[in-house]
Amino acid sequence: MSDVVEKTLSALPSLLSLDSQAGAGKLSPSSKLGNLIKGITELTSKHEEETLIKKELESIKEQVASPNTTMRQMKEIMVRAIYCEMLGYQASFSYIHAIKLAQQGSVLEKRVGYLAVSLFLNETDEFLLLLVNTVLKDLQSTNLIEVCMALTVVSQMFPKDMIPAILPVVEEKLTHPKEIIRRKAVLALYKFYLIAPNQVQHIHSKFRKALCDKDPGVMTASLHIYLQLIKENPESYKDLTGSMVTILRQVVGGKLPLDFNYHSVPAPWLQIQLLRILAYLGKEDQGTSEMMYDVLEESLRRAEMNHNITYAILFECVKTIYTVHPKSQLLEKAAECIGNFVLSPKINLKYLGLKALTYVVQQDANLALPHQMTIIECLDHSDVIIKRETLELLFRITNAQNVTVIVEKMLEFLRLTYNVWFIQTMNSVFSLGGDVMQPDIPNNFLRLLAEGVDNVEDRQLRLFAVDSYVSLLQGETAKLPQRFLQVISWVLGEYSYLREEESDPGSVMRLLARLLDQRHTSTETRSWVLGAMTKLCSSPVYTAIYWQNLHCYSTERHWLYKTKCLSSLFKLYLTTLIFEVDLIISCLSWLWCCFIPQVDSSLSFLDGYVSDALAAGAAPYKSPHQRQEDLVQEKALSLEPYGLSLPVSLSSCSITDRRSPTLLSMSSGLSGNSTELSHQEGSTTLKLEGVKRVWGKDGYLAQQQSAGETPTPLVELPSPLLSPQSPPSQKPSSGLEPDQEKRQLASSLFVGLGSHNSVCLVRLPSTVWLFIKNCQSANQSNVVKSLFKPFYINSCQSALHNLLDSTTVASEGGAATTTTPQQTSQRTLDHTTSNGNPHVEGTEQRVEAGGPLSLIRGNGMVAVVPPRDLPLTSHLPAELSGLARSEFTPLCSDQDSSLALSACRVYKEDALVLLVFISNNNDSALHQMVLQLTCKELEVYIFQTGLNNKVPLFFSEIPVGRSRNQDRNTRVSSNRDLEKPRIFCESFRNFCSPPLTVSTGDYGKMWLSFSHDLKQNLRLVTTEHQEPLTATLDALKGKLHLHVVDIIGSEGIVACRLLQGPGQGQPCLLHCRVHADSLAVWLRSPVPELPDSLLYHCQKALTET
Amino acid sequence: MQFMLLFSRQGKLRLQKWYVPLSDKEKKKITRELVQTVLARKPKMCSFLEWRDLKVVYKRYASLYFCCAIENQDNELITLEIIHRYVELLDKYFGSVCELDIIFNFEKAYFILDEFLLGGEAQDTSKKNVLKAIEQADLLQEVKYLTDPKTGTSLIYDNPDISLSLTLSLLPCSLCYDLQNVDFQIHLFPGTVH
Questions:
Q1: pLDDT tens, A108-121?
Q2: Among candidates A956, A967, A873, A974, which has minimal Cα distance to A918?
Q3: Which of A59, A638, A1054, B78 has its CA 20 to 30 A from that of A485?
Q4: Locate the AP-4 complex subunit epsilon-1 C-terminal domain: which residues (chain A) (predicted)?
Q5: Residue A701 — very low, low, confident or very high, per pLDDT cuts 50/70/90?
Q6: The three-state (H, E, C) secondary structure of A512-544, written as one string
Q7: How many CA atoms lie within 13 A of A1033 on its CB side?
Q8: Is the CB of residue A182 less than 8 Å away from at least one CB of chain B?
């Protein structure tokens, strides 16, 4: 009696709570679990939590083992055990008890028992076998809830081999009167099918029955199985297409009970399932696809845009439409739908839009075109996932024309996100590439590691590196290349401190010490290792180990070690001065003991080395006197604070200076002071000077450079002067600029997609890139006030073409026409169709040594005196006026010569600029004009321009007060590359003017680093008043725009650079020597074909003169 | 679906359900990595992650992150809605659910999840049905505590739908139970307690 009352009262709170909150289980802080949870929340450290949970687990263990524990208590204990497991603590002792609870408990305890089992155990766990009988028993129970629980656990995990034991019972449940049981049974069978398809083969007919079940829930469940079956073998289920279509039509038509609605959308899960099935069925099957067109269209139509769930259906629908046999009308609608995704401000939808695009562009790359700008925006999205999906999309639309830009984008992305990947890749590069690798690779790698602000990502990158190296060193190091070991030592020396949490701080030191001990470690590597150890010795633990090693190696008979020891000691002195004065004093005394006596004039300690060196073909031994001097210098040097000469100090310099290790010549000090060793030095030391920077702070430099160039603004800074008169449509120029960048990028990315289309933003392969500068004349006020005579210049393409490249367009006819329709009162300068090449003037400051230069092929342009002797020179922009340029060429003019076009080429350092001048010789000012530049062959970049947004920009640049009848000049500068990068021979002006400006010193370094060379004799040009050599080189310079670096006596050096093509920007060096009557030319370049083709052009050029 | 994880903003795991067999070590590794990745993401970022060869769909509700891993060809948005539906279920069950509800009654949260998702697939997407199933079982639980195991419990087990009133009549209090709506009210008459 009292027992009953007590139980009643204890249950009251939970019952009462049901009043207010339907079915809610209330917090039970008074229970043991509650106490445990509360206890944990009050803890402050992980350690405390560990202790607490350990204690808890102990008590649980005790309780479960006790025979007095009732099942009800067991249930409570089990809940706590689950909780502990969730926190990550093993409670394996309770597994067996969980099974016992499921076996023996009453329904509710069983429920917890089953839950614990499903959480604790794995499909492969042997414990599960103990559960089979329990499950079997429960399946046969008359209690619905027990059956449900058994089916639930079965569909979550069941040992594969035991499926036959329960299969008949589960099958039986397919005909159970309760739909919940039928549904669970179907899902259990689905699970069986997944883990052991063979076992359920014989009951496929029963699946069909489930598909026809009167309860939609059971039918939905059966679709899981069918999706799987159809995916594996669509052919044998084609007959189901009709049924699936009917079901979908019913669902879409809202024929299901309202229960199945989700946010007033009828059974979305079911719809999606059906759509996926239809996709598999209709794939590459026109007949089947035709059956589903109607219902697909209806799905598309019914899914109104209001909720995520409809987007989910739409997305699936679009996917299906693009998977099944295409029907153009549907495809159109689907494409429209994708637009809704892509343009959605919701980022999730945008992502799916990109994903859908990625899917559909495989069929039709043009579908990406309408979304160019969105795609470009997404490429710079702050969310990596969006970026990645965009890249995936770009990957799908990659073609021969945009592949380079896309690959650059991908690399950029890779470097930003995949630290681990990067380190691992570099590791394998080092391990495999080994010592044959170009020396600049390890250096650039180190620089990349060292550079950058000290933010989380950088630190992570370094930590990854350190960790991976430590594990590498822990393994077999004998096979690692020396150069890699050097990199490892440097990184470990610099960044081992990042492994703070490492329990054993001495481990890195010991690993390094092991390296020192190893026989295969080369002398130079040892010095790197010692350097690293020196850096590490700031901690006492390190110092002890370090000291030990220093001791060992100080007795080594190699002068390099001596030096190293000295400098190390100095560092040691600095770092430990305060704490370890005693140690230092003993160090010093020790050092003097071991070092000084050995600096004997006979240098006997070098004998061994010298004989080795001599054997290896080193330079002959020098006099003892000379040696002595060297050593004295050496000593002095070593006491300098971390001169640039030693690898050990390298890092500290580079870090503080923010300079990279590459910039320091590590070997200069050593080799300078020990001439007899220079031979060896030369071969082992990394050659660092003059090496091209490949890796920079932001990644691979070459890539970055071009990526950086790509989005350069089209136009220069806006001038406010004209803004009052701008038409309302004018966008603020500042906002325009980033837009333009993106357009440009778009042009390079979407190149080659679709057909030529003049309204599309940007397009077309590589090449010419025009930008309009507009200059305004003095009587600008007229512009505002007067109504202008309408004026159109319709086209002058071919003329421009000719200017650009007469050979390419020679075949294209087309006269330049200039008309002046009188009806229009407004003029627009509308299109500038140009060939889009990402190089614009804006990039000048970035492209340091000059990017690929533009080329004008063909010399069909005839210099003609401008009709009115225009003083066009005065209109040259200031920044271009000093540069070499061609003569002004009139292109066309209208009948009364009131408007004329002329152009000239200006050779800039990094670009060829085409200036197009539009001169208005009329009295009235031009308000707007249409300038259209098209170029069929070269592919055209169009950007919209006009008076409204471009003209004002350059007003400030033009000197005021010029010839009166020129109201306005529009300059069109163009910079272009060759469209076809293939052959060097064709385009001799690939080597551009002024090409590669290098100093004699740089020349020497470059010369040594280039691998491909060619020697040939050329004809000398003879003139009266010049040396033959000078004359020849001048001729080459004039013809090919080569850069004559220096002429010394009978030798001359010349440099140039490839304008475009695969080896874009690559230099080629020429060394010329007058030899008898001919010029012996020696060409060198990193690009194999370059010397060859350059030579050809040289020959040609010289023959012509 | 491959697995579902619930964790707090502090990275504490609140619920985990694995639909694919994995070793404990692997599970822990995945959990750690995923929690780190998801927590590092900013609120405005999209709810999908490509992670290993899976797709992770996550959503944050108050201080709790719900995180599902699905296969690549699965529909992300519908997974997001699965999460949402689960939250709705929890909400309905606990009555404006908060993290504490889930911490203290995590086994209930598991039961609801099992009733909603079976073997990684949505088995019953009807809110009403799921809660009905749960509450029937729950009710048993409460009633059982009130009843002596020797009296009348078997009736409930055999057929929960019809036997409740019988069982309830044995109780020292009267429960007015509406089988249709599952919502029920309890009136206590202390005087009738024997």
A1: 788 888 898 888 88
A2: A967
A3: A638
A4: 994-1103
A5: very low
A6: HHHHHHCCCCCHHHHHHHHHHHHHHCCCHHHHH
A7: 24
A8: no
Interface of A with B in 94-123 (CB under 8 A): 106-108, 111-112, 115, 118-119, 122-123
Partner residue facing B13 (CB), from A7, A37, A86: A86
Show residues of chain A in contact with B100, CB under 8 Å: 27
Amino acid identity of residue A35, one-letter, is N
Evaluate whether A317 touches A302 at the Cβ level (below 8 Å).
no
A315 with B75: CB under 8 angstroms? yes
Helix (H) / strand (E) element for A905: namely strand A899-907
Lowest mean per-residue pLDDT among A145-154, A209-218, A956-965: A956-965
Among B28, B86, B107, pick the best mutation site for testing chain A contact (most A Cβ within 10 A).
B107
Q: How far apart are CA B125 and CA A261, in angstroms?
A: 9
pLDDT in tens, A289-313: 888 898 888 888 887 767 888 888 9
How far is A1067 from chain B, CA to nearest CA, in Å? 42
Q: Are B146 and A347 a contacting pair at CB < 8 A? A: no
Which pLDDT belongs to residue A905? 66
Query: Hey, are the CB atoms on A115 and B110 less than 8 Å from each other?
Result: yes
Nearest Cα residue in chain B from A24: B94
Q: Residue A1001: what pLDDT?
A: 79
What's the burial of A1082, exposed, middle or buried (CB within 10 Å: 0-12/13-18/19+)?
middle
Report residue A613 as tokens: 């060196």
Chain B positions touching A83 (Cβ under 8 A) are 106
ipTM over 0.90: no
Contact B69, B2 (CB under 8 A): yes
Record the tokens describing residue A688, joined without a space.
Answer: 């660092």
Chain A from 292 to 311: CB within 8 A of any B CB: 308-309, 311
Give CA separation, A699 vs A376, A413, A469, A712, A749, in Å: 21, 10, 21, 19, 21
Q: Which residues of chain A have a CB within 8 Å of the CB of B93?
A: 22-24
Task: For residues A875 and A804, give the distance between their C-alpha atoms in angstroms, rounded to a whole number.
Answer: 20
Residues on chain B touching A228 (C-beta within 8 angstroms): none
Residue B149, pLDDT score: 42
Nearest-Cα residue of chain A relative to residue B42: A383
Q: Which residues contact A1039 (CB under 8 A, 6 or more apart)?
A: A988, A1101, A1104, A1105
Q: What is the pLDDT of residues A810-850, one digit of tens each?
A: 333 333 333 333 333 333 333 333 333 333 333 333 323 33
Say how far apart CA A857 and CA A791 lie, in whole Å: 33
Within 10 Å of residue B47's Cβ, how many Cβ atoms?
23
In chain A, whose CA is at the least distance from the CA of B110?
A: A115
* C-beta atoms of B142 and A18 within 8 A: yes
> CB-based contacts of A264: which residues, under 8 Å, 6+ apart?
none
Contacts with B107 from chain A: Cβ below 8 Å: 79, 82, 112, 115
Cβ burial A879-903 (10 Å sphere, 16+ → b, else e): ebeeeebbebbbbbbbeeebbbbbb
Test B81 with A262 for CB contact under 8 angstroms. yes
Q: Is B53 on the interface with A (CB under 8 A)?
A: no
Q: Which of A28, A221, A260 sits opposite B104 (nearest CB)?
A: A28
**CA A397, CA A395: separation in Å to the nearest integer?**
5
Q: How many contacts, defined by CB atoms under 8 Å, are there between A and B?
A: 214
- Output the pLDDT for position A564: 58
| Confidence band of A875 (pLDDT split at 50, 70, 90) | low
What pTM value is reported for the model? 0.51
Helix (H) or strand (E) holding B85: helix B76-94
**What confidence score (pLDDT) does residue B187 get?**
36
Mean pLDDT (whole number) for A512-518: 77
